[in-house]
Design brief:
The complex is a heterodimer of chains A (about 260) and B (about 325). With about 260 residues, chain A is an alpha/beta fold. Chain A is about 30% helix and about 25% strand. Chain A folds into two domains: about 180 residues, P-loop containing nucleotide triphosphate hydrolases (Rossmann fold), CATH 3.40.50.300; about 70 residues, no CATH class. Chain A is globular and about 55 Å long. Chain B has a single domain, classed as ABC transporter involved in vitamin B12 uptake, BtuC (Orthogonal Bundle), CATH 1.10.3470.10. The chains are: A alpha/beta (about 260), B mainly alpha (about 325). Chains A and B meet through helix 2, strand 6 and helix 3 of A and helix 8 and helix 9 of B.
Chain lengths: ~260, ~325
Amino acid sequence: MIIETKNLAFTVSGKRILDNLSFSVSAGRRLFIVGPNGAGKTTLLRCLCRIIDDFSGTIKVKDRSIKKYSQKKLAAIATYVPQSLPIDIQFTVHQFILMARYPHLSPFSVISPGDEKFASDAMEMTQTTGFAERVMATLSGGERQQVSIAAAIAQQAEIFLLDEPATYLDYKHQRDIHSLLMKINKTFGTTLVCVTHDLNSAVLSADTIIALRDGRIVFTGSPDEIMDEKILEEIYSKKFSFANHPVTGQKLIVPDYIE
Amino acid sequence: MKKKVIFILICIFALTVIVISPFIGPVRIPFKVLSDFQMESVESQIFYSLRLPRVLTAFLAGAALACCGVALQAMFRNPLATPFTLGISSGAAFGAAMYLIFAAWMKLPFGGIIFSFIGSLAAVLLVYGFTKVKKGFSVGTMLLAGVAVNFFFSSLILFLQYISDFTQSFRVIRWLMGSIDVSGFQTPIIFFIFTAAGVSIIALQNLNLNLMSISDEIALARGVNVAKSRKIIFFATSIMVAVVVAYCGPIGFVGLMAPHICRLLVGYDNKILTAASVLFGGAFLALCDTFARTLIAPAEIPVGVITSMLGGPFFVWLLLRNSAANSL
């Protein structure tokens, strides 16, 4: 198991955000985490890479408690891709991606040709080479997200913790990001842990789905299993309509808020 | 690389200021003093025991303040963060004033520095304490806490002045205006030791500072131990500010201006920005101090008055330019 949590809980000013979560992910899997707003999805991701470190219970990465790793050692294994990067970053794309080599550098070392290679490969894979010298603040939302993922690739992490990587993007960029993630998963065997609101994309991309509600796991299973009226109603307190994908036959949800 | 050229120009500028400034002043210094190490003439005495140490001290003080400014601005992701605005300077000033008024008779070795370091550290701990109490570190909170701490220590200094006698009070006021008044090489050597140490510590944090200047989240995701890094930076800035304040008083705005001008010149990468700001800040303060002692010679203007007169308008310009107030 590359990630294993046991009785993971997190409380902030008296409010329980995460409540006794125990689950595990094996290497190379694609785990998607869904659930209503405020269910604790983002908090969970932040615990997994120790952006939050005053949780209780244990999180093990590669069979070792993450509290026993230095932040740097942990970052060489797991990285976090936030929902969106700050919009006013004054570094160029190239500089930003090179900075992701941090876990592999000492304070004294300079950027080596090897580091440059990782950065340029990551840019090629994410099709960001074209705007390598642009300042981050000038990028569009979609471009910024591509760069964010490029940096995660350059970081050579084995686990990507992604927080709604496609939420703010248009359809084309949503699809691009998802196929990029699938490609990364296939090429490097990267373990993906991805939080999303988009059930359909979770069903299409995941091999396991966990649903959170009020900080508790209310569902664990395969994409096919979650596409069930009763289960979804339990998660979201709302009824869903379904349709089958015209080509693959995959059961998906369809919008039903039109009267 | 355009930035490298600009960096070399900054180096040349700094060197020029250091070399030329000691020759400027009410007494003309002929170039032949350079070979007169025995200090036989009055001119060479002025040059070696007054002007050169003073220019070097000013340079090192400016360098230290600029270095603090660079580090704090990156760490807080706020263009207005400086030792001055965060209350570190006033903490140090309060410590040093305490020493001046109550403890100077003890003639402690480095008493001024020790007291002012305690003061700056107290200010930092207060600011830092706020964020611990208010769980979750917010840059805005911390800056506002800094402003509060600044006022708090300023009022304590006023109180000290009020209860002290007239001569002491005058000394404190004169020193609070900021002045670089040294003779002999003892002070520049002390400054060199502390500035070199402080700048080296900050330089080793440059990669961390780059990442922290984006967001703490990204810094952590890339593997920066943000909490530890923050402590190291606070410690290094406290000690540099303490030394400068103990000897020269709270000289404002160098820590604000130098990093900003350098950012326009060499960009945001702290690896080059720190070095550029250190050189530029040093040269800037040395230049200001040269004006301070020559403009109305034989009298002197406190250098703090000059930097503040330049700094005030600069601060406003900065506010208008990138509406920094929004990021509070």
